[in-house]
Specification:
Blueprint: H1 7-19, H2 52-77, E1 82-92, H3 93-99, E2 105-112, E3 117-122, H4 124-134, H5 151-172, E4 179-186, E5 200-209, E6 214-222, H6 223-226, H7 235-242, H8 247-257, E7 264-267, H9 275-279, E8 297-301, E9 304-314, E10 317-325
Antiparallel strand pairs: 1-5, 2-3, 2-4, 3-6, 5-6, 7-8, 8-9, 9-10
Helix pairs in contact: 2-5
Length: about 325
Amino acid sequence: MGDILSQAEIDKMMQTASAVPQPQSFQLPPTRSDSKKSVNLYDFTRPDRISKDQISTLRNLHEGYARLLSTTLMSLLRTNVEINLQNVEQLTYGEVIKSIPTPSCIYVFQMEPLESSAIFDVSPSLIFIMLDRLFGGQGRTVDSTNRELTDIEKTVIYKIIERSLADLKVVWENIGIFSPKIENYEINPQFVQIAPPGDTVVLITLEVRTRTGSGLMSLCFPFILLESIIDKLSGESWISAQKTTTQETRRMVERELSSTNAMLRAEIGATQLSVRDFLQLSVGDVMVLDKLAQSDLVMYIEDRPKFLGKPSVVGRNKSFQITGIIDREVGDDD
């Protein structure tokens, strides 16, 4: 057991310790409160390469696409079709591929002249609803949606996807002139490689509803495809582009309207009769009209006066020779 120090020895040791110089301490100058910077979390696995403003523009763009595609599918399927834009989000390509079931109906297409390819994916449940409707059924869902499509079914759906991409072309004309073209068809998403798994893509999801069922359509655009037009996706650029109708849009509308049927009728003239006189009419009676025999007749298209002309005969058929066009100001009533 060690020796026990006396009080005098303890006091001497304390005096010796207090005589040793202490190390100097340094204090940082106080920072001003206005120099503090906010810290934002950043996930390097999911980089946001597209701004919120550009995402908002894509949302507005494809809300219009949903309305246009709804009209197209209604004319093809002959039933009510409602399409709503469900979501527009940034993801990695690997996450998108994992979210697509197998088998699925995946169409890889290009947006020439843009580089890279994009994906148009349709859920199998929606595919079989459309097939059932096109083949004369009520458009009901089929339990065996995990089977592959037959060659005939592939041809029918291919035409629908082409029409859908044609509508996409019309909507994207607010940004530029593009020509969507189908490159490939796949049922397994693992065989579709339009971008590296870690690259950023924009996934646009549409919900399609009919009277008998529903399903999803989705568009996947890699960032490398959008990179060359990313500046045009700002709100200001998109709004200014909407004010101008391109010649391509005009030609497409004219092409669609060229096959539309319209009712034409020519009006010889008009007169007013009382009900008493009308009831007393019989074969051989002559009515005085408000036009002379040599006056031009008015031709109506869907009850709208459009042309002036004279009645004629071509062979054994009655005809109408147009002699003038009725000019009407925009907004005039009939």
